[in-house]
Amino acid sequence: MIIIFKSGATDEQIDHVIKRVEALGLQAHLSRGTFRTLIGVIGDESLFQPEHFQAVPGVADVIRVLPSYKLASREAHPQSSVIEVGGVKIGGGYIGMIAGPCAIESAERLDAIAGAARAAGANILRGGAFKPRTSPYSYQGMGEEGLKILREIGDKHGMPIVTEVMDPRRVELVERYTDMIQIGARNMQNFVLLTEVGNTNKPVLLKRGMSATIVDLLMSAEYILARGNPNVVLCERGIKGFDTQARNLFDVAAVPQVQGLSHLPIIVDPSHATGRPDLIPPCALAGVAAGADGVHIEVHNCPEEAMSDGPQALLPEQYAEVAGQIKKVAELLGKKISNVAPSKAGTSA
Amino acid sequence: MIIIFKSGATDEQIDHVIKRVEALGLQAHLSRGTFRTLIGVIGDESLFQPEHFQAVPGVADVIRVLPSYKLASREAHPQSSVIEVGGVKIGGGYIGMIAGPCAIESAERLDAIAGAARAAGANILRGGAFKPRTSPYSYQGMGEEGLKILREIGDKHGMPIVTEVMDPRRVELVERYTDMIQIGARNMQNFVLLTEVGNTNKPVLLKRGMSATIVDLLMSAEYILARGNPNVVLCERGIKGFDTQARNLFDVAAVPQVQGLSHLPIIVDPSHATGRPDLIPPCALAGVAAGADGVHIEVHNCPEEAMSDGPQALLPEQYAEVAGQIKKVAELLGKKISNVAPSKAGTSA
Amino acid sequence: MIIIFKSGATDEQIDHVIKRVEALGLQAHLSRGTFRTLIGVIGDESLFQPEHFQAVPGVADVIRVLPSYKLASREAHPQSSVIEVGGVKIGGGYIGMIAGPCAIESAERLDAIAGAARAAGANILRGGAFKPRTSPYSYQGMGEEGLKILREIGDKHGMPIVTEVMDPRRVELVERYTDMIQIGARNMQNFVLLTEVGNTNKPVLLKRGMSATIVDLLMSAEYILARGNPNVVLCERGIKGFDTQARNLFDVAAVPQVQGLSHLPIIVDPSHATGRPDLIPPCALAGVAAGADGVHIEVHNCPEEAMSDGPQALLPEQYAEVAGQIKKVAELLGKKISNVAPSKAGTSA
Amino acid sequence: MIIIFKSGATDEQIDHVIKRVEALGLQAHLSRGTFRTLIGVIGDESLFQPEHFQAVPGVADVIRVLPSYKLASREAHPQSSVIEVGGVKIGGGYIGMIAGPCAIESAERLDAIAGAARAAGANILRGGAFKPRTSPYSYQGMGEEGLKILREIGDKHGMPIVTEVMDPRRVELVERYTDMIQIGARNMQNFVLLTEVGNTNKPVLLKRGMSATIVDLLMSAEYILARGNPNVVLCERGIKGFDTQARNLFDVAAVPQVQGLSHLPIIVDPSHATGRPDLIPPCALAGVAAGADGVHIEVHNCPEEAMSDGPQALLPEQYAEVAGQIKKVAELLGKKISNVAPSKAGTSA
Fold it and tell me: What is d(CA B39, CA B1) in angstroms, rounded to the nearest whole number?
């Protein structure tokens, strides 16, 4: 931690700060410059809240040197984590291929989509039973009935499943059905929900909020890790931008940034990041080329009849094409796509 | 709703869209331009989900003409709403003056702050018992004990109280103690929580999310209104910006924008919007001059000892100065500050 | 300057940096923390380019403590500057009221607008002769003929004039006609143009670029000051935001931020900041309430016939109303509107 | 064009608009909806300025259906353009590999860098002789002396050259020396400069401004095309974002967005987009995987001694590694890297 004083800070103000630093059991290393005075704080930074010092008279700024996340940091865990989702590996050289419809609509439709997605290369099936919708008048999902369908179809095709939870009162319910719990972008800083999923031991797919910095994302992961659940996969899914021709702004550089700071895997979601079928394949490839540990793509066999977010889904044949290219780029970078269990469905694979 | 076709859309594609529009009981009004064809959809737009049409082959874009929020719109309710919080009016010419510490720390401290804030012109007391903190290691609030203190001190000084709820399981608890329930910026799109507070009849202070558009904010208000609770006060508290010298970017134009689209009152929170005591007074005055229906400012009598967010609080004497100026600007615009009940504290007022 | 080392920096790397610092005639003050090592650099920071050190092996970050602008800083010139534009004062308690059409279209129209604007309280007349248009097919302005008209009409109404220059080859021409030279937002970092207007001694109205930080703006002012022209007035005119319902995002907090860092006056331009007549008056008042040293508003007597940017202009009667309110808010803050010379037009004032 | 009326628009207002549309020789197609009335304007949209209608009483909004750029649009030129730069092709399946130092510092240093870059796979040499610097006190470049060195070293290594021009008065000078003229991000809307380079027939490398939308970028290209110069290559080099851990926000989705709207090639510049050597290789690969027609990377053999922007350069050996991977990703997508002429330098290739 570095404390920088205002140009007119008095000796009393500087002494007051030094005493407060020392009272915390830390050392204060004073540097008086020609124009500015600063203190380097030495010792265990976790004892120190920068905001306590920012409000002290005479202080201009307090700069953190160490990250405020610990368990999520690469310093704490230099090797890249590999997270297993029902036998499918994500991270550390393994690419997760998550695919499926935005919302679960019926067993028949999900079965058709899952079969096609698996045949095309997907290894985890997604589908929403509880949908966060900006309008109270939009379709809100099938609820527990949807969870049952997702479990059944996932099992049929030998694919682990992931689905979103929005309500802390339903974490236990969702946990019972699913292999991986998704926290949506709008809930990335729903600390109550993060704490609840941290109390489970299911893998968590944590999506980046639309105005979250990389550090904000890692702090939210820290909430889950701090409760004892180490199985967190991060997801870049587009942030807010000023050009509204695409739905969001796909921040592909978030992938290597996260990988530099943290051991946790990070995947990309070009469906939500762009909201446009023409942009999904190039952004999916861009994500993998940048080092992403997986790709999350919405797939639907009839986008115009989708109950939710049809325009951001690929058709199964479009998915098959991009999945093939993803595989080649991944191999070029020395990575592989984790196998799934044998399918119990006669028709697929 | 206007549906615009791609330049190469075929007659079959156009006919297919017209049939789907008519199947919804709406009329399709076709215009074939030199370069582009478009359909004006006529009838009750609430029957229509734009996304169903965006995914249809041949369609380039679907443009909404009517807002997707209804109850929150000024068209539905041309007169500005006045929301009463424990006898204090906000909106329709009445300015709410919400003040208090970020977190409730002790009865003694809150008592001192409340007395000073009321004497300075505040008419609603704020204080956090459950704190949304970006770090799991930061102070998380006093919980129910804090709610009791807030109630007691509010009553003593004759001030209605407002406090944040983060957990849908605690809405009932918070509702029992408080006069107004706050939904924080990070929970603006926590639709589960919005639904729960919509089920109460307490006034709700709904803070704008850091990447929420004006329409997003009104859609979140619509969630509360649609559950039957009409008592919503909106709050501009800064959005995400690219210049990190201030904590957030204070979007003062949100005030007249909201007032043009909606009948709901909107207040400003320069404490969170700027995070800097030097910027709070000018931004508070700017908000009122732009037409805001109230001002939310954090006040603390010893910022450097605050458990949370000390740097964004004003000292009581700083608050008194800006509150005096706010009153003058409000009067200049023909508005007044709603009176509070007589204080039961001998020392204040 | 503070140089922070990576956690694994070697002693050789640290020594290498210390030697480079000392070779510049500066002192390096080393602090070895438990987790990180850092160096406080002491001496004249202007001898030091941070980027030279950012690329050195072992260095994690280099943090500037002093601003990189000097002449524009309040530390260099603690008293607020008052800039005189043809006898009209801006800054230090004087409010500049700049008004006029986007583009000069004819002497008759400008005469009518100028007369009305002056009668309403404007003290400087604006009008564009060279227009920066995003489309090469849009109206580009009257050129020198427009400058002549602007000079003539300004003189008739006793109002100093301001107009934009876009081409360094025309600075001399524009300088000959005008009392104040405007640098538009898109040219804020056109360093060639900044250097040319810095070589004149005319007051310069420097508009903030749409993605410029406050420091970027002050660095651009520094370009002008460094050439010997101290007469710079800054202008907040909206930055790029994610909500496209208004044209730009009016950053009202820029006003007190600039005033804290710099002695230069700063005015606001709600016409360009919002692009909507309904938002111009509230944002104009907000700017003055936040401490702005002036207001720039486009005024046109027939917006629907304007050659450029009609929708962001007020009608003369709308301008008169907001100008009256601006005056009251300014007086409330102890400021006044500088008088203009007597008008030579029988009809105005 | 679609003109949407406010809900309370009167018949007189609607008639007035219809008459104005018809006066332009266009047809007005009226649709009266239950809640809103709109007009579809049919005919040649280039006769129509939306802003003339936005300011008309009763009008709520005017929506463009056709793009305002014409020559740059893919509709005008369905086949992807291939731009030749001194024999090196960019676009239409050919990848341009532009590399070199930020600033030209000396013939010896440039010779060493150029030889290494060419050997690693670069086919165009870059180097700045006129540098746009945010500080007037930073190094501003070698000027014409630098142009001579760049020409000489490019010729020696058989590499065409590209360099930036900032001043319209120097376009002729720069044109004389270089094979391709660069317009920097800060000058993307310097319309005077765009017009001047449009008057030459040299290929132009047009960098996207930090707050420019895709349409803004294409409109700036249109300025050049409209003057008769069809040789424009666009460049995504990072836009302004809210997370300051990287220098800018690399908008990789801009690549397929531009390619959908325009026939012009678009390359990526991960050096400026990220400003961090650790992020340059992953973002370079991401860009190519997303379909970019080339990659612009700064290369320096001693970043810590660079006169400008050392931290965003790769070492020659780092460049060689990423260039090899770029080649593989390009081949995977069916593209190739255009050959350069035989080098005249004994040491390189």
Answer: 8
C→A contacts (Cβ < 8 Å), by residue, are: 2, 4, 7, 29, 31-36, 38, 40-45, 63, 65-66, 75, 240-242, 244
C5, C31, C70, C245, best to mutate vs chain A, most A CBs in 10 Å? C31
What residues form DSSP beta bridges with C267?
C235
Q: Are residues B144 and B19 part of one domain?
A: no
- Inside any domain, residue C71: no
Interface partners of B (3+ CB pairs, < 8 Å)?
Answer: A, C, D
β-bridge pairing A232-236 and B294-298:
unpaired
Average pLDDT over residues B58-80: 87
| Range of the structural domain that residue B15 is part of | 2-63
Distance CA A236, CA B154 (A): 44
Q: What is the CATH number of the domain that holds C227?
A: 3.20.20.70
What are B230-269's pLDDT values in tens digits? 999 999 999 999 998 899 999 999 999 999 999 999 999 9
Beta bridge partners of C207: C235
Q: What is the DSSP string of D214-227?
A: HHHHHHHHHHHHHT
Quick one: tokens of C245? 């319902």
pLDDT band at B24 (very low <50, low <70, confident <90, very high): confident
Residues in C closer than 8 angstroms to A41, CB to CB, are 33
Looking at the structure, tell me whether residues A138 and A247 fall in a common domain: yes
Beta-strand (E) ranges in A92-247? 94-100, 124-126, 161-164, 180-183, 204-207, 232-236
Contact A177, A145 (CB under 8 A): no
- Shortest CB distance from A250 goes to which of D242, D252, D325? D252
A20-25 contacts at long range (C-beta below 8 A, 24 or more positions apart): A20/A52, A20/A53, A20/A56, A21/A48, A24/A48
Same-domain check for residues B262 and B301? yes
B169–A166 CB contact, under 8 Å: no
Q: Rounded to a whole number, what is the distance in Å from the CA of D257 to chain B's nearest CA?
A: 14
Q: Is residue C243 part of a domain?
A: yes
> How many angstroms separate the CA atoms of D126 and C123, rounded?
50
Torsion angle in degrees (nearest 10) through CA of D145, D151, D153, D158: 180
Averages of pLDDT over runs of 10 residues in chain D (349 residues) are 85 91 86 78 74 82 81 93 97 97 95 97 96 85 96 97 97 97 97 97 97 97 96 98 93 98 98 94 98 97 74 92 97 92 61
| Domain tally, chain A | 2
Q: Same domain, yes or no, for D32 and D138?
A: no
Distances in Å between the Cα of C24 and the Cα atoms of C21, C27, C47, D91, D308 are 5, 9, 7, 47, 17
D168, D220, D240: residue with CB nearest C240: D240
d(CA C236, CA C218): 12
Looking at this predicted complex, what is its ipTM?
Answer: 0.92
Q: Are residues A46 and A163 located together in one domain of the fold?
A: no
Partner residue facing D66 (CB), from B35, B40, B44: B35
For residues C281-291, average pLDDT: 98
Query: What's chain D's average pLDDT?
Result: 92
Instruction: Name every chain A residue with its beta carbon within 8 A of the beta carbon of D215.
Output: 245
Structure tokens at D173: 């000078």
Do C202 and C250 reside in the same domain of the chain? yes
pLDDT at residue B348 in the model: 42
Our CA angle for B119, B121, B124, nearest 5°, is 100
Residue in chain B lying closest to A241 (CA): B211
CATH number of the domain to which A38 belongs: 3.30.70.1140
* Residues C247/C275, Cβ–Cβ less than 8 Å: yes
Q: Which residues of A touch C (CB under 8 A)?
A: 2, 4, 7, 29, 31-36, 38, 40-45, 63, 65-66, 75, 240-242, 244
Residue B216 lies in a domain: yes
pTM of the full predicted structure? 0.93
